[in-house]
Design brief:
Layout lengths: L1 E2 L5 E2 L2 H8 L6 H7 L3 H6 L8 H22 L5 H11 L2 H10 L10 H5 L6 H18 L2 H22 L5 H11 L6 E8 L6 E8 L2 E8 L2 H18 L1
Antiparallel strand pairs: 1-2, 3-4, 4-5
Length: 238
């Protein structure tokens, strides 16, 4: 087992490929994705750092995340989709994805950057993750990157939806209906579809016997929030 100047373990690109089952036939491309410019400064034999791959990976992540949100939250308003995407591809979140994959030991850093704790820094972890995505895209295609990133989005997206308390649509809808003495909105799950690991729920919000909004999501709570928001959107229009 190799070690970094800090004494921490170090992982080779080949070992990383095997551990994460990454579809890389070209290890030079993966090696470049893991190489920070500080390493190039100390190893002139290394040809290129990961900054160009980071640029590409950032664009690929924006597209894949946006498409995933669009398909998974069909009732969500454009503004909330934008906020969700920003939260999912921000530096701290991408750094958390990198930590979940344990990319730190595989990063190729210069001695000074390594000794300064670079393997734990959000900025470097985020950049390495983006570069890895860029390399995956170049080596394979969008579908491979989607299969790689979708489970990560699935794991964290619900907490971001629940964080969209900015509008708290269920509370606002109830305040609106009670203020007009219309009663309390009722939420009814009308459909559940898809395999057990990827269920989609459809919820209607009823008021005075009428359906005033519909929402779909990966759990009933999210679907109910989106149904309430759809109802509020319709109320605003009228």
């Amino acid at each position: 087992m190799n070690h970094t100047p800090n004494g921490d373990r170090e992982e080779s690109p080949a070992a990383l490929t095997q551990r994460l089952d990454l579809p890389f036939q070209n290890l030079l491309l993966l090696t470049r994705a893991l190489t920070h410019r500080s390493y190039i400064n100390e190893h002139p034999e290394a040809l290129e750092d990961n900054e160009r791959l980071e640029f590409l990976g950032d664009a690929v992540l924006d597209f894949i995340t946006g498409a995933w949100l669009y398909n998974h939250f069909p009732e969500m308003a454009e503004g909330d989709l934008t906020r969700m995407r920003s939260a999912l591809v921000c530096t701290p979140q991408l750094a958390e994805f990198a930590r979940a994959l344990d990319l730190g030991p595989a990063m190729r850093l210069g001695r000074g950057e390594d000794q300064a704790g670079g393997r734990m820094r959000d900025v470097l972890l985020c950049a390495t993750f983006e570069a890895l995505i860029g390399a995956l895209y170049l080596q394979n295609d969008v579908a491979v990157v989607q299969r790689f990133i979708h489970p990560m989005l699935e794991n964290v997206s619900e907490q971001f939806v629940l964080r969209l308390e900015l509008s708290d649509p269920k509370s606002h809808l109830q305040e609106w209906s009670q203020g007009r003495k219309l009663g309390i909105p009722q939420y009814v799950t009308v459909q559940a579809s898809g395999p057990d690991h990827d269920r989609i729920f459809e919820v209607e919000v009823h008021l005075n016997g009428k359906v005033i909004g519909r929402g779909t999501g990966h759990n009933k709570q999210i679907a109910a929030r989106l149904a309430a928001q759809a109802a509020l959107d319709d109320i605003e229009k009228t």
